[in-house]
Amino acid sequence: IRRITSWVVRNVCKQIDAWRTRGLRLTVSLNVSSIDLTDGQLIDELTQSLAHFNLAPQCIELEFTESVLIPDFDAVQQQLKRLRLLGVEIAIDDFGSGYSNWRYLRDIPAKSVKLDRSLLADLRPDTSNWHIVQGIIRLARNLNLTVVAEGVETLANYRLLRDWQCHQGQGYFFSRPLSPDALCEWVANGQTFDGNRPKGADAT
Questions:
Q1: Is residue 198 scored above 60 in pLDDT?
Q2: Tens-digit pLDDT profile for residues 56-98
Q3: I need a labelling partner for 129 at 20 to 30 A (CA). Which of 42, 55, 95, 109 fits?
Q4: Strand intervals (E) in 34-161
Q5: Are the C-beta atoms of residues 45 and 6 closer than 8 Å to each other?
């Protein structure tokens, strides 16, 4: 996994630089494992790649699932603090799918928390997920965390999460996965909201 992560770090920085030359400035999220966060190797590789392409650390966000924190919370927390001091953004991914220890929200230097897509699967009034999603969004906002809902696939999901003041969403409602060139075209075509759905998105 370390070799895979090293390859991803280098190529993501290369792609961000390529997008930048086309006038597109994005923050790109990378998924990392518990092994990546056991020592300072990841920080060294990130620092080198960012310097090579003359990129700001803020253009990288590291995502990790709650399970990453289980084996050695203190060691992972230390590495995450170092990454945050470097300027890299930190996100807790798939929140709500595992242990959901509230200590993570309190002690991890995260900027955002991503709600697991399974929580959106059965969003109906008076169901557990209905109250859980509302509660997590409210709590995260009170902790000054950006809340991102994963798996937004319908207009109903989008409107509901918007009304609950969820900051961001990702899913097929906005767009299917795109190649780097197709993403540039998607942005250039002015993908904006008309109040109901993103123009060009497959919002069925």
A1: no
A2: 999 999 998 877 776 777 888 888 999 999 999 999 988 877 6
A3: 109
A4: 60-65, 89-95, 112-115, 146-150
A5: yes
The predicted model scores a pTM of 0.84
> Residue for token digits 């060009």?
200
Alpha helices per DSSP H over 112-200? 128-142, 155-163, 180-188
* Predicted local distance difference test score (pLDDT) of residue 196: 47
What is the C-alpha to C-alpha distance for residues 136 and 128, in angstroms, rounded to an integer? Answer: 12
CB 37 within 8 A of CB 79: yes
Angle at 165 between CA 66 and CA 201, to 5 degrees: 85
Confidence band (pLDDT; 50, 70, 90) for 14? very high
